[in-house]
Design a protein that fits this description.
Number of strands: 12
Number of domains: 2
Distance between the termini: 31 Å
Largest sheet: 8 strands, mixed
CATH class of the largest domain: Alpha Beta
Helix content: 25-40%
CATH topology of the largest domain: Ribosomal Protein S5, domain 2
Strand content: 15-25%
């Protein structure tokens, strides 16, 4: 049997952007994720295959066993990034050997469309870190960067409160399975947002960071405690307003869905990936009529253990 690692995907309900500066974020691991399986083939080189949710190979490469240089690949840019990640993992653990006599081939498979933005990179980083026996937050910083909440989601099977703290973040497993979850849906905006570009734009803004952190922390704590959909919607609307003023960007609802009567909340980098919307199954026809056909109910998207 091949050795296999698995990491959960992620969505960030509260704290986007502000989480980079130490705000608490409510993060939700998803039922979708990525596996990494090790096996042995007759190849003289180290072989990597990346498969999509339909088991189709979308990327392949052969790397030198000696120095991880690219020998052959279907995509030079992706291959260079992969070589860089593996090399950084080896720097963190010099004893790490990607290619051995027992395993010289890797199959990395996502269980969701790669453009959904559920953590193609973070699940890969966490799987490689587990394989290499290194700190995933250190590997993340050396490669893609970011707050690290997605790494925490990869490792936890229930919603979490996440707060940055160097390479040892504060992660608290919480119960977030509201009685109104049947009124919560995730709508895909038909485009993937580049998180690194969004982070750069945020870093260039001038604002009162301490004030923003306190506001977001207050909302995050209240979201965990609220018992009614109306209260939940008010908190998410306030979150959107505060971030809109900070980022100097209109909310996604104002830009695309101004006539939708219920709440719409951005998740992660603004302008792409998924949004959370409140309403009924019948209300989702509004989005389908606008061309947004990928809509997942809360319980089909979010992992939730029965107990912690």
């Amino acid at each position: 049997m091949p050795k296999t690692f698995y990491s959960n995907g992620k969505l960030l309900l509260t704290g986007e952007y502000a989480i980079l500066d130490g705000a608490k974020g409510l993060a939700l691991p998803t039922k979708f994720g990525q596996s990494l399986s090790l096996s042995y083939t007759d190849s003289e080189n180290f072989v990597w295959n990346s498969l999509d949710e339909n088991d189709a190979v979308w990327f392949s490469a052969e790397l030198s066993k000696k120095d991880l240089k690219v020998i052959y690949t279907s995509d030079q840019e992706v291959a260079y990034r992969l070589s860089h990640i593996l090399s950084e993992a080896k720097k963190l653990n010099p004893l790490f050997e990607p290619s051995t006599k027992e395993a010289n081939t890797v199959d990395a498979k996502v269980t969701f469309p790669r453009d959904w933005g559920l953590g193609t990179s973070s699940t890969l980083i966490n799987n490689i870190a587990e394989w290499a026996g290194v700190n995933p937050y250190k590997l993340l910083k050396a490669t893609f960067g970011g707050s690290g909440y997605d790494i925490a989601c990869a490792k936890h099977n229930t919603p979490i409160i996440y707060k940055r703290n160097g390479f040892s973040p504060n992660v608290e497993e919480v119960i977030f399975n509201p009685n109104y979850s049947d009124r919560l849906f995730f709508v895909y905006l038909n485009e993937k947002k580049n998180s690194r570009d969004a982070i750069t734009s945020y870093r260039n803004l001038d604002f009162d960071k301490e004030k923003l952190i306190n506001q977001i922390n207050n909302i995050t704590e209240k979201v965990l405690k609220c018992s009614t959909l109306a209260e939940f919607e008010n908190l998410l609307n306030l979150h959107e307003t505060i971030l809109s003023q900070t980022l100097q960007i209109k909310t996604i609802k104002n830009i695309r869905f101004a006539d939708y009567p219920n709440t719409i909340k951005s998740l992660g980098a603004w302008g792409g990936d998924f949004v959370l919307v409140t309403g009924t199954m019948e209300d989702m026809e509004y989005f389908k009529n606008k061309g947004y056909s990928t809509i997942l109910p809360y319980k089909k998207m979010i992992l939730q253990k029965k107990s912690i």
